[in-house]
Specification:
This protein is of the alpha/beta class. About 35% of the residues lie in helices and about 15% in strands. The protein contains 14 helices and 11 strands. A hairpin with a 2-residue loop joins strand 10 and strand 11. The radius of gyration is 22 Å and the shape is globular.
């Protein structure tokens, strides 16, 4: 019996930032820009005005009121103790988050030709031309999702309506995603592929093939969003997801953390990872890729958490990692096999190893 190893990707904000999503550090700035561009349209003024009042009345404490976590933490404390005159509720917090993220989430454009005629054109001769429009901000994320799915995509014939894929018959790795992000970048990629990608039987769609766990909820989960505050606790509506995330992490052979800086106040995530490590029987590797500062602050946090011989931290950009993973080992063109042309998305792990190990940290330098 062939062993199928479990790989879990744990995603932070650095995974979604390349497509234009705001980070914690610039969330308020992005919200203000949105309100200024379209006054009143997004109902953001209530929170923005509350922040302005905090700026004006600050007298006895040091505070960074451009940091969304610090702002919402103070507002939440005022709200739950009945001290907030403007009656900002938890629903206001979640609506604010959902609105800003939704407004900054771009659509994924169909490939040229297909968008215009609904059919594949003769000039769409590379895999990139068939997966996403040229120059799209999702140009690295969509191929990465294909890699997570383990699909081999068959080159389309001119005039065909669908792009067909073949699932890997004997998979060496099974992928799952645990994300700390509220956004739906992975889901958007799956929905995008579902518009034109079909298996040979024409029955299954790409959206059925990947499990995604949102630990803090998502903009699609109604009220079950845990705001990024220092008072955040395990929301009752999300406990099922946390239990599932713990199971996936504990059963993982490989944990890969992308774009998550492990902030000091994210104690729940630290204990989730520790609980998973205590239960893990077959964990071989922990790879962490995150952009760090000159003092190595993020690396020090992870070094204080992990001591596994299979752990490594790489200071780098997620976007570069995605591009490198899906452009190696012939991924930039079609491969001929059995009389047909394929784009092989089943080699993600081989590309992962090359990106992280063979190429080394210089691959992720800022230059």
């Amino acid at each position: 019996m062939k062993l199928v190893e479990n790989v879990v990707y744990l995603l932070g904000a650095g995974f979604s930032q390349p497509v234009g999503l705001p980070l914690i550090g610039n969330f308020l700035e992005k919200a203000k820009d949105l309100e200024q561009a379209e006054p009143g349209k997004h109902n953001l003024r209530k929170i923005i005005e509350a922040v302005g009042e905090m700026h004006a009345t600050r007298t006895h404490c040091k505070a960074n009121f451009e940091d969304i976590e610090e702002v919402l933490s103070v507002l939440e404390m005022q709200a739950i103790t009945g001290r907030q005159a403007s009656s900002i509720s938890p629903e206001d917090f979640t609506a604010f988050i959902r609105t800003v993220i939704g407004a900054y989430t771009p659509e994924i454009e169909l490939p040229e030709g297909l968008a215009e005629t609904g059919r594949w054109g003769a000039d769409q001769v590379t895999p990139d031309d068939c997966l996403v429009a040229r120059g799209s901000v999702y140009r690295h994320h969509v191929p990465f999702v294909v890699g997570l799915l383990g699909f081999r995509i068959v080159s389309p014939g001119k005039g065909e309506q669908w792009l067909y894929y073949e699932p890997q018959r004997e998979r060496e790795r099974r992928y799952n995603v645990v994300t700390l992000n509220y956004d739906l970048v992975i889901e958007r990629c799956l929905q995008h592929l579902g518009r034109f990608l079909r298996d040979r039987s024409g029955v299954r769609s790409a959206e059925e093939e990947l499990e995604i766990i949102h630990l803090h909820g998502s903009i699609a989960h109604g009220p079950s969003i845990v705001p990024p505050t220092s008072l955040k606790a395990l929301h009752p509506g999300l406990r099922k997801m946390w239990r599932r995330a713990l199971t996936l992490l504990a059963e993982a052979n490989h944990i890969r953390i992308l774009g998550y800086s492990l902030p000091d106040n994210d104690s729940y995530i630290r204990y989730l990872l520790k609980a998973a490590a205590c239960e893990a029987q077959n964990l071989k590797r922990i790879d962490v890729l995150c952009l760090d500062d000159n003092d190595g602050t993020v690396k020090k946090r992870y070094d204080g958490l992990f001591e596994s011989r299979g752990y490594q931290f790489i200071n780098g950009r997620v976007e570069t990692y995605l591009m490198s993973c899906m452009s190696r080992a012939g991924a930039s063109g079609w491969t001929n096999a059995h009389g047909a042309n394929y784009w092989d998305g089943t080699l993600l792990d081989r590309r992962h190893e090359r990106a992280l190990v063979d190429a080394g940290p210089d691959l992720f330098s800022e230059s």
